[in-house]
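Quick board copy: two proteins, each given as sequence then tokens.
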Amino acid sequence: MQEMHQNSRAKVKMWYHSKHWMILLQLSCIFIKFTECNEFIQDPENTTVFPGENAIFTCMFETSDTGSVGAAGPSVSKDGIPLKGADTEFVLTHVDFNQSAGLYTYFINVSWEANNTEIACVYTDQKFKISYSESAHLTVIGPPLPPDPRTVIITPASLVVAWPKPFSHNLAPISGYQITVYHGNGTVKEQLELTEISQTTVQAFSTDDGSVAETCETLTFNVTAASKAGTSPPGSTTGGFPIVLPDDWGSSPEEFMKITAINSEQLLIEITPPHMCPYQDGNYTITLKNEDGQILKKVGPFLH
């Protein structure tokens, strides 16, 4: 009787250890070495595209007999949210599935806002309620940065505007510039197209015939850079045409200066300043001389 009891205990103990080992084996497959039971055998790869093009992500998943029951095919997600339709950044256009190879290929039309995004192939095992994913980085090539124009040469008849070549992606070099010149009232004076990327200057004249205009007009230059990836936001600068006094201005003081004697020691001098533009840094100085040409006093400079 005691021997039978010992044999029974041995069988129970053996069965317990056997069951315990099976449970450990299954758990190790699921949680410890899960990639040996279910794994991506083709991960999505990092990709670079232009705005409006399809980013293509391919992933293939292999399951063991244990993990394949109730398993669903891979999907593509961003920030844990599956991409199923259209939004502002992504449009899932279509999915190709090679059933014999278990290969899923996703075609996603992307906009510039999708740049620097992590896209994941996600596989969900319905039986064990576990998901696994492999990520790839999406780079969307954007347009060039805005040019930084500066007015570098100013004359009464013309303005020369120049800008350094702005940054652009090496896969989308700058193909040209567009310059829009505006009058002071905001209307378009002219539009210029530069297709030679080495040319980073443009000249605008104060009048159509290139003559000097004395209207104190300020022009605004908007410069954009274009590439395969799109057109940059505009860079802007302004410039005004200065008015140059004639060479003989000041030779007849009575034309712009009135002198009134207040008493034997004081003179009132009234000056009509020359016509200059508000954006010019003009000034004038009054010099008093005696009949012999000796300077008695110098007053100024007075800002225009």
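And the next:
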Amino acid sequence: HFDIAEKVIYLMGVDLMRQQPRWKEILTEIRTMIASLEQQGISNENMRPWRMHWDRQLYKALEHQYQMGLESVNSSLSEIKVEVVYRQGQLGFRPPLEEIKSRYYREMKKFLCIPQVFKGVNAPISKNQDDRANLIFPCIIDLNASSFYNVYQKTELQFQRLNEVLESFRDWVAVGSVDLEKLCLESLETVADWEMNFKALKVRGRDAERIPSEIKVDCITVSTTSIKATIDDLIQKLMDALLITLRRSAITDVSTID
């Protein structure tokens, strides 16, 4: 009895989200201890009140960790890795945002439904008897349903932040959808114009170097490796366009003078 009590007390401090294998391990140990008593000749029916007692204690541990998990579920789900990419003139995520959301909500549902599938130690007396012993655990979901609103509200805010990460690269790739040489020729007139843009481009290049290789949005890790390579390529293309158009403008001016 006291050995089982220690294990149940221990479960009160075992993270239900991050350490589910540990929960299963401890539950298996408790069931093994109870099963050993049956092997010693104590009938399942006689132990039923005792089993029910331990299910009620497990209920307390499960509900405590479930409530703790609801507070941190948005940051504690399994890590989801995504990339910011620029393909065919479109800025987006890989995998696509809808796929990210689908995986996210699937992982969240697994946690929210744990009490629904949780099995205690109060087994049915016979194979033909309905097992009503575990019906106490699904009640945890109903009793804590009021917290679901905050969970989903945090989720919406999390995806807003994820979208903000994507939008922060919009200006970086803006030149990727235009004819750079045509833009330079239409926008620049004097040598000073070119000089100013050369300087600005060098500053922009240094700024690009400071973009972090990863950005964390709670459990979502955004890799910027691909988009940084794209930005470097666009900066180089713009530099080449500036050089080409400056040379072309100089040749035009010389021809005009001649």
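Board note added afterward: The two ends are 105 Å apart (CA to CA).
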